[in-house]
OCA2 melanosomal transmembrane protein
Amino acid sequence: MPGGLMVIICPPSITYMTLHDPGFVGGEEPWDNSSLDFERRFRLGSEVTSLSLSRSSSSEKNDPLDNLNLNFRLTSMNNILTMYPDRDNPWRMLAVSSTDSFSMNLTDFRDNALLKLQVGGPFTGGMIDLTNQEYVLIQVEQTEQLGQRRRRTQQVIHNWTIPLHSERSDQILMTKTFEIDPIVITVQAFLQDNEVVPLSMTHQSLYVSVETQVAIAGIILAGVYVLIISEIVHRTLAAMLGSLAALAALAVIGDRPSLVTVVEWIDYETLALLFGMMVLVAIFSETGFFDYCAVKAYQLSRGRVWPMIIILCLIAAILSAFLDNVTTMMLFTPVTIRLCEVLNLDPRHVLIAEVIFTNIGGAATAVGDPPNVIIVSNQDLRKEGIDFASFTGYMFLGICLVLLTSFPFLRMLYWNKKLYNKESIEIVELKHEILVWRQTAQRINPASREETAVKCLLMQKVLNLESLLRKMMKTFQRQISQEDKNWEQNIQELQKKHRITDKVLLVKCVSVLAVVIFMFFVNSFVPSIHLDLGWIAILGALWLLVLADIQDFEIILHRVEWATLLFFAALFVLMEALAQLQLIDYIGEQTALLIKAVPEDQRLAIAIILVMWVSALASSLIDNIPFTATMIPVLINLSQDADVNLPIKPLIFALAMGACLGGNGTLIGASANVVCAGIAEQHGYGFSFMEFFRLGFPMMIMTCMIGMCYLLATHIGLGWNM
């Protein structure tokens, strides 16, 4: 549920500045020509809006006071970024060995709250074995006042141990924050030979305590959810505003990142995967294959709705266990929409059910969901026996139990839901046609007289169709039955109407898509293939563009969900900024403290329950990828603590179960949710945050309950801890 270059068009009264150039002085002169052009376009657009068209539902919810409040907040954040420059601490290059150490005196720390120390070198993650592993020891020494009257001081040393990689190849950046007033930093290497380890180090002072940073991060996250739930602005703009607020908070505490650093926070592999699959699906839709699949699914279900929904959800769950969840939903969403249009069903409820089961199915294997990939890729967990086979075997059995109980519960949730549209299929198609024409007209930028005239003609057509719709609504008296009893006759009519329109292009699309999906499998099961999912999707899209001989390339680009891509980019920046504000680390530390406070005879059961539910709730609110990466070392340290005495396997399986199933809690809890909502919105069937929440959150609670019972039964009852 993602930094990047975000272009924000604001009123000319706001001062603009370049983030990466600290010597830049903001001014308004360069924007004069742009403002005049903006006014000219606004006057041309007003010619169209003067046709007394009905406003969309999203614009009706915008209140002038809300817009004024948002503008005020945006101006405040802009002023904050103007006042606080980028973090520009010089990096110190050093080399240490078993005989040579490095020491540095700090004289610039006065009354600062925190010391943030960053060290780069050939490190490895996980726990350190001091007996047989090489490591670097960093000692931060401080002076503590023991008494005001005697003015006695005591030297306190804080140790930070970082394990070294055996091959000395990868350069990894490690960060740690100390709540002290340091005076000396000493770096010493403990090696098995006399070689030298090159390191880079920088430090900076922060002005706010960890608790205050966590409170600020919580307020920003709550504000983003308020904007998304209330639909004051689009969710993409809400994520962009949230990321901007988080960057402003980092600037205030003295940790403002540079623009280059913010850009590096974006997960470009995910964006490349999304873009490549969007292009593939856009070309695929030109063949009529989705219409053909919809008719076949209707034929298999024999006109019955619930068998069809169960078949779709089950296939989606099985595919997502081996494919990426995003890929599964990008292939299933167009088919589902066409199928629902054929059956006169509301696609929203069917799509929400599909994406819920996609997230459930993704938890079944080690490659189905990103948190699972992170877990099985951890070297320390592999040493504990959590490899691909053992992880998949345990999770697959648990997810099968979850799926068996999910179908009846889904039927209960949909008991009072009207899956069929209340109007006839003619009225539904007319409404959808009006919506598509309106969206097409709104996407035209009236930069010239001809474009303005075309936009006016399109809006006039919308008015004519709305007049026709009102006449049809007045004469409509038909009641819709819950099952189509004339399904055999309808199938013959649908087969004549919905056929494969371009068989040659279909062969090309199927061939390229088969190769792409095969490479996805190869990438998951063959570690020696150094080709990420994003590269595979991009290369497949380019290959299909060449084979399909697309003449009008802009038509394909118009079908790409740019708002969804921007949402993910902003979400990556937001989550990384919240991590910099210590939010994720704080959640992990508090979870560990709660587990330690439990009596020893009940500690394992409480730890499983606590890790499971904390992971589920956190993953429904924040991205589960950084949360999983943060919780793994916390749980490893907890299991190796002699005072706690907990096995590592139950904790890791509880983390995986909660992180994967928790994505169903909210609309932005999983990437597949956002992708499905974006494609549905492009087709005119968008669903809101609350529409998803009313179905997804109860399913998350139920599935997590079943998963928790499975964990307790296997680890507490049967003792599967070894």
